[in-house]
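Handoff note, outgoing to incoming analyst
You'll be picking up this chain. Sequence as last confirmed:
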Amino acid sequence: MAEQSTSQNGTTEDPFEPLIIGFTCNWCSYRAADLAGTSRVKYPPNVRLIRLMCSGRLDPSFVLKALAGGADGVLITGCHPGECHYLEQNYKALRRVTLLQAMLAQFGVEPQRVKLVWASAAEGLRLANEITSMVEEVRALGPLNWSQVTNEPAGVMFDINGHETELTTPASAPVPPKATGHGVQAAALEEVTA
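Most recent structure output, in case you need it:
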C-alpha cells in the first residue's frame, strides 16, 4: 500500500505515482522486458508496455494521444542503432522523438516526459534500470496537466488539421486520417513520418 503524506492544511494525500506508456520494439526491447520479468528483475509497475513491430513505426500522434489520455510520460524503446531488423527504422524513431520533444517544449511540456531508449533482447537489466530512471524523473516533474497545456479537457485532442478528436479505447479506435494539414507543425510531422 502506498504511503500517505500530510499536506499543509492537515489532510492526507497519496503521493504522486506517474503513469507511463511504453512503446516497445517487438524484436529487442519487448524481449528485454520479457527477460527482465523472467529473471525477476524488479522495476516500477508504473509503465504499461505496448508492443510495436519496430520503434520506427511509432506515429508521433500515438505519443500525443497517450499524453492527452492521462499518461504523465512516454517511454519509447527500440533496437540499438545499426541493429534494427528493419534496417534504419530506429534512426527514423530518433528523428521523430527529437522533433516531438522540441514540439512539446514549445507547448510548455517538459521534453523529459518523452524518452527514447535503446535495449537489445539481452539487456533486461538495463531496460529495467531505464524504466526505474524514467519513473523517478517523471515523479520529480509531477503530474502532467494536459488541460493546462492545450486549454482542452483531458481526453480531447485536436488532430493535425485542427479537428477535435475524442480519445477512444484501442478496441474501438478509428484509423487516424493522414496528416495533410498546412503549417509549420504539419510540415514537420509529415517530413518526419515520411
